[in-house]
Amino acid sequence: MQIIETIYEMQQKVLSLKKQSLQIGFVPTMGYLHEGHLSLIKKSKSENDITVISIFVNPLQFGPKEDLSTYPRDFERDYQLAMNEGVDFLFYPSVSEMYPIEPSVLVTVTDRTDVLCGKSRPGHFDGVATVLTKLFHIILPDKAYFGLKDAQQVAVVDGLINDFHFPIELVPVETIREEDGLAKSSRNVFLTENERREAPFLYKSLLLAKQKIVLGEQENNQIVSFMKTYIQENTSGVVDYIEIYSYPQLKPVTGLEQKLIIALAVKFSKARLIDNIIIQLNK
């Protein structure tokens, strides 16, 4: 595995690979890799000639009160995990490499961001879309892999690729979970022992909500109320949101949708956990 730290070197390497007609899979990350990231790498390895991952903690997607400075970092560990998975190239730029001057152009996301996490994190997905636009131009991947744990991000990336006509196939990958159902996340390390025992109830609430919908429940307010009560009774977390939308459009449900998302965010003492479940309804 080769580590590349500059945009110029990465671009030159990619152009060389393209001349050899090699297909490139790309997994963008902010590091502190876990099994969720590794599942994306495995998927890319199985579908492409070359797999590139990036590790870059993007400052543009963190708000002034968010955890940029405390975001977990461990490059040596990440390097070993990536090498063990057979990654071909690890793009590891610095902030000054990616943003050598104040950006004169930023990407603004105008849809799919006023709900779920985007509602309470103004500008977050603008930062995501801006850095992905840069990374897509640098890496020139044929396929890009994203985890459905952050299903709103997948929806935003879907819009980015389609609106800007990137010749990239978006490959969503199912959420990787612990044995007890908790979604893998870099932020899980911030849970206390008691909170870690409580956290699996978030996914359990989603499964129970799905069961209600499959059995014919059509009142979203009833489902949301049930989930909120269930989480409050079984955890010490504070519900940030529980919402149901069409997917990937992230629009209010009208009864005609074939695919829905139920998503939630719950704040614990030092960690805010998100999770979701996507339901494909019968046609």
TrEMBL record:
GO cellular component: cytosol
Main location: cytoplasm
Broad class of enzyme this protein falls into: ligase
Domain of life: Bacteria
Pathway(s) of this molecule: Cofactor biosynthesis; (R)-pantothenate biosynthesis; (R)-pantothenate from (R)-pantoate and beta-alanine: step 1/1
Record localization: Cytoplasm
Similarity comment: family membership: Belongs to the pantothenate synthetase family.
NCBIfam families attached to this UniProt entry: cyt_tran_rel, panC
Protein name per UniProt: Pantothenate synthetase
